[in-house]
Each structure stands twice: as structure tokens, then as C-alpha cells.
Queue: 2 jobs
Job 1
Amino acid sequence: MPKRVLITDDALFMRVTLKNILTKSGYEIAGEACNGKESVAMYLQTKPDLVTMDITMPEMDGISAVKAIKKEDPDAKIIMCTAMGQKQMVVEAVAAGAKDFIVKPFQAEKVLEAIQRLIG
Amino acid sequence: MTSLDAGPFVSATASVLESLLGIRPAAGRREARPPTFMSQECVVVTGITGMLEGYAIFGMSVVTACRVAGAMLGQEEATLDEMALSALAELANMITGNAASLLSQRGILCDLTPPSILNGEDMHVSLLTGSVFVIPFHIGSLGLLELTVAIRKPFR
């Protein structure tokens, strides 16, 4: 059975880009969330194997969403995919429970490597 | 704003454009710009908050916007639909985010606001901030992208 990934990004362009990268490599898309709030709700609804999470988003930012998801499911696997590469941001995301941190613009291979490391 | 503060924006613009479009842009001379200016037809604005506050504004003609979005979407030239506008917004988000990372290496911590896009002719932009700089980037055959940076240290 293919592993399922929930994509979280406020930019349609990024959601489509990530969806193309993932589906070409055999992953299934559990859902596409446009902000942190939607991501938390969709996580609980779809129980994906992994979440990709942007940080700067309206309604609820990615770090708050990671905390909310980890509160509900401490085993949740979340990878940050963001343009904000500051050390302080990485530290905050990892402290919240993120497993990896990818800075945009990214290469498809880098995203796939990070995902494969976590869920195969 | 000092020229030191504009440096990360120039580096980030050049490296993100090269990474996304495969074209190393040629940066022109940085020049002071009055706080009220006539913008280009397509303008992407990202807000900066934190230890610096202001805006990074990416201006281009509609033709260049279509070509840049097209290059990001793997097409020759896009129409400015929802997907193309999203690509342009994400381009600005990546550049400003990368600039914020470079600023953080100097101990200057900033955050971003999600980008907004304005389209139209004869638009005047008025920035309520101190000094404003503009740097032109020539992106090969895609055209000209103007980066206007308006940042200042916040009053506390």
C-alpha cells in the first residue's frame, strides 16, 4: 500500500509542485492544506504517514500546527518545507517536534530523500 | 536603511532566481528611490517584521511576469491565472525568506508576512518608511525584475 502524505502550504504553486514530486515517486496524497489550522484538522481526519509543513501561512503558522499535531499524535512525522531557513526557526521547529527541515527553493531529490528516510 | 542591510536581499534574489529559473541574473546598480514611486505593472509585496520592518517589493512588466511564472511552471509563457500568480508570490516568499536567513547570520532576526500581488497600469506606491533602494535584475531573455527594499529599525 502506498504511503500517504499530507501537504501543507498556502501557495497553490508549492502544493502542486510537491504533489507532482510525491506522486511520481509512488506516494499517495492524503490531502492538501492551505494553512496550519486546516493541516491539523486534515491530519486528524486522514491520519497520513507524513506531513510536509510550510511555516509562514495565514490563520495558523506551521510551528503552531506542528505543536498541535504532536499534542494529538506524539508519533506524527512532520517535515518543515519553508523559505525561512534561520537557525532559530530550525531550532524552534525541531523543538516543536519536526523531524527534518528543508529550505525552499529545494531540489526534488532532497525532499524525497528526507521522506524516504522517515517512512520509506 | 544602510547599504549593509540591502546586501542580503541582493544575494538572495540572485541565488533564488538562479536556482529556480536556471538563469544567473545580472544585478544592476543600487539606487535610492523616493518613498512614492510609479510601480511596474505587476508587483509582488512581502512584508518584513521583527528587528527590521518594511517591505521587499518585486516589480516587473506583465510580459516578464508571464515569462517568469512560465519558467517556474515549465511552460514557455504563462497566463496570469491563479497558478501563475501563486508561483510569483512563492518566488517573492523564497527570496525574502532567504534574505531573512542571511540577515539572521548577522544577528538580525526577522519574520515575513505572506506575499500580496498587485496588477495594473499607472500604479503609485507610497511607502511610509525612511529610505528606499531599488536594484534592477536583468534575467536573460525573461526581462527585468526590479527589487525595491524599504526597511528600517522599528520604533519601540
Job 2
Amino acid sequence: MIKRIIIIITLIGLSFVLLPLFLNMEDAERLSELSQTYVTEGAEELGTANLVTAVVVSYRGLDTLGEVAVLFAATAGVTLLLGTKKKGGSVTDLLEERRGGSELLNTGAALLFPVLLLFGAYIFVHGHLTPGGGFQGGVVIASAFVLLLFIESDREFSHSVLHSLEALSGAAYVLIGLIGLWFAAGFLDPRFLPSGEIGRLLSAGAIPLIYSLIGIKVGSELIGVVDSLRRRS
Amino acid sequence: MITQLLIILGAALILVGFWGVLTRKHIVKIIISFSILDTGIHLIMVGIGYIKDGSAPIIDQEMPVSRLAGNVVDPIPSALVLTAIVIGVAVTALMLSYAVQLYTFYKTVSIEQIKELKW
């Protein structure tokens, strides 16, 4: 009882913390000065049609590198926790034998798998033009592999391929950042390649390259996470 | 108006998530509550970046470079939320793997029966 009262008081307190945010917030009439600069000069400077990508990959590129590092650390943690082969016994020890996928699932997954791969690649290659980018595309690709695991839960993915894809794309990302340091204005500056015409696939300097590498890295990392979680179940 | 709507929806999700974290006993339900809480925070962050009658900050025929200023929403909160979503996925995966480890060790998913976690 006393626990419940404490919880209710905590929630009421939290809603009072959030209340001023609600009361003092009107729809902004214009952008802040920094965003104004990003919006008006981003297209001209970098040649990206999608300005969110310009912020993610170039203006805040270091943040994105840190984010990729956090994702890598989390993947390493998951692998460390679950990677050891069935030491503490399997989760499904108590459950009965697993059924195979139904006909509908098997056919649907086989049909969707190549389409999802293609769609994921499309999303990260077009990250500088349309909504989307490396993270979203990587997740779509990982979901294609999750679908494969639904059909056949014992399927083994090649860990050496996954790990080398992940390591190579991560290293290439940092390398592109360093090339930017030498040939353009600074670390992760994509302007060492020609920026081209806005709206073309081959435009915006190295941004499509960086986002594709992020897509491959995120995709292989998430497949690794799902695979580690699956191997213990 | 839309900012306020997004903030109130986000605040509701934050409260639901927090309530779930505080009251649920099933460890997977706690993790789901964390995801709901995350989503509420993302919604508030996106709401703060909204500009009146703003469109997505993407250049196309309808939105040439000359029209950009004043007609698009703030790209910075969108980029931050993109980051936050990915970090959220990473943290959820880590929490789930802890849950798997706890289950294999204690053979239970109820936090009430895991006495070492009591404070």
C-alpha cells in the first residue's frame, strides 16, 4: 500500500516537472540562429537535398561517429554476455520442441528477403536525397535476416563475415573522416569529393559513401545482436 | 498548438513508461516500459523542433532552396532523435541480454524472486 502511494506521488511529481514544458511552449515562428544557418547554407555548402542528413553526417558528424561507437559497445556487451556457447543451459530447456514455420511464413519470408535487402540498400544509398539513411537502411536489412531466423531458427550466420564487414566499414568510416581532415576543411568533412547537382544520386560529396558505410555497419551489428540473442534461446 | 499536442502525448507516454518501470514485476515488461518511456522523450524532442506550418527539411520541386527559410522544421532535433532512437535500440538489446542471463541463472522472470536485486 505504502509502495503504491509512493509511486503515485512520484508520477504526480514527474507530471509537474513536465507541466511547465507544456504551458510555456508555443509553436515556434522561426528557427533558431544555428538551425537557420544549417538550413539556408547546408544545401549550398554540402549539396544534400535532405538537410537532416547534412546535420547528422557532416555538421554533427562527430556525434554520429560517437553513436556508432556506442552501438558497437552495446553489440560487444551483448556478445560478451550471450556469446559463450550454452554454458548456463538453454532458456528453452523447459519448453517443448519448437515447431517449424508455417507454409505462409516460409513462402512470405523467402519472397520478402531479397526485396528487403534491396530496399535497405536503397534507403541508405539515397540517405542524402530522401527521408532515411544509414541507420534506417541498416535496420531494414537486419529485419530481412530476422525473417530468415523466423523460418529456420537453427540457421547459422557466418560470424567471420559479419565481424569483418562491421570492422571494415567502421574503419573505412574513420578513414573517410581522416581524408576529410587532409583534403577538406576538417574531420568528417565530406567536401573532398565534388558536391555535384542537388538531387542527383552522385552528389553531396562523400555523404552517400559515409551513410552507406554506416548502413552496412549498423546492419551487420544488429544481425549480430539478434543472432546472439537467438543462440541462447 | 502542434508542439503542445506532441508534448502532451510525449508526457503521457513518459508517465506510462515510468509507471510500468515502477510497478511491473516481469522483467521483460520493465524493458518494454523503458522503450515506451524512450518513445515519449523522442516525441517531446521532435515537438520542440516544430515550426509553425513547417514541412520536412528536404529540398525538392515543392521546396526549392529559396523557400527553405521559415518553411521547414528544425533539422537539429530530428537529427538528435535519430541518434537517440539508435542508442535506444542498443540499450534495449543490452537490457534484453541481461534479462536472458538473469533467466538462465535464476530460472525466473519475476524480479520479486530475485532477492539480490532488493534494496
